[in-house]
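Predict structure. Chain length: 354.
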Amino acid sequence: MKNIVVNKKELKDMLLSLFNNGVIRILFLILLVIIAASVYSVQSRSDKKNFFGKIIYRESLIEAEPLPINTKASFSFQKGELPAVINIYSLEEQSEEQLMNLFNSISNKLLGKIAPKVISDQTSKTYYKEVGRSVFVGNLLNGSFSFSGESKTLLAGNSENEIGNRVFTFLKENGLERNLSNSPAVTNLTRIGDELETTSSSSATILSFTFRPTIEEVPLVGIGEAGSLVSLLIDKTSGKIVKIQYYNPKTNTNNFGKYELLGVNEVKKTPFSSFRVIQIIPDENGASDLDINDLARVNFTTLEIAYLVYPQKQNLLPPVYVLGGEAISSSGKRGKISVYLPAVKNSNLLNPAP
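Prediction complete.
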């Protein structure tokens, strides 16, 4: 192959000729603008440290009890891939008119077109619709809602997967699928009296679909009334929806702050007064009276980061560590326990007003 030799002077003249071309000059200037905008964007994102000031964990304490200070604890979880910093996002404000329109649309499909009641007091505003034994209740302050009864909407299918796909389609058609993936946890249930109990797939009469919202791969965790963020119960035979719990707040991903998180060693040294119990699930041997005030020992085996969702209206999504493990009472009864701990360094954990 013949070598191509380019004279330096010729190369310089060629480059100058290209730059003097008006089109090339415009393209070059556009490239400079793009680079400058990218640098500014990166710089502005890095300048958002502690953007919202000190994070205060306040409202969540209303429905979550502290871990007793005399409980002994051990930590056997691994360090894992916990981040050193996290983005804290603000939540989008939804107007009452927007929420009324949303609740009207969904409740009309579930119950039919009847006028709702709006019930207000000093701390709440509730959208209420009832037909027979079926009830739809919406929170006009934070956008959460629930339904129980028998829906007019049918999500029947020939298999668990087919019903699950129709459940996700129902959420999507109503604009409720944000931050959700079409891979819910499925539980087989059967009704015994007024209670629902887990059973085998062949014996199930009701399917429970529970979705876990995530933001940038960090899950949301709920407390109290917001404990089950997105879940639907479906009658396996008829396809009727028999229960919905929904709270999946809209986040403003353009409005955020960066905050430093506690390290694993700092978590282990945190006083128990800062730990808040999410739930205690008795073991299968019937330890139904496992009491939070009678916990002799807790062995924490898992640790993950999550965003905390309150039952009340909130402006931000504060991050928490969720710890899971085994709880043992003073009499030897055992159960699974989940607790959360404020994850941001130098945050305030305030008790609610009496």
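Summary: Confidence is low (pLDDT under 50) at residues 39-46, 350-354.
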